[in-house]
Amino acid sequence: MAYIREIITEGHPTLRKVAKKVDLSEIADPMFQQLLDDMFETMYDAPGIGLAAPQVAISKRIFTVDLQDDDEAHGPLVVINPKFTVTEGEIESVEGCLSVPGMVGDLTRFEHVVCTGLDRNGKKISLDGTGLFGRCLQHEMDHLNGVLYIDKAKNLRPAETDEEVAEAEAVTAGAR
Ligand code: NI
Questions:
Q1: 30: CA distance to ligand 1 center in Å?
Q2: What is the pTM of this model?
């Protein structure tokens, strides 16, 4: 059974902490696996395409991603203790975040990243991210470092056009 957890918003101190690395011995703990199940439930309920553990007030280096685009490379994915091994190029994007409700902003992200980490069984994974997937990985990684997109965004504004509202509400526990 998975449960929807509360998504905390800007102003909550946990969003500003550098999250702690997950110890390998934690991964098999049923409570840890429950957290992962709850993160997916919370992300799908939002609905969002990415959710970082600090957004549910758990200061650990974990995020979930599911672009829900029928490409299994895009999720459902759990990434524990992620690291970028490749960051290259630049791409302009509009992002929102469920922890900053109703707002969007423009920012520059890497066009291509390779993210390594562990899956929910503690197995090593490597994810190649471009486009929306790559931006989502970067947005979620920022959450693990206490960074919100609003720290980097220009032209931060209330979501107004249909497209912006979609960015801010429909798909953005993570990035879009
Ligand atoms: Ni976010």
A1: 26
A2: 0.93
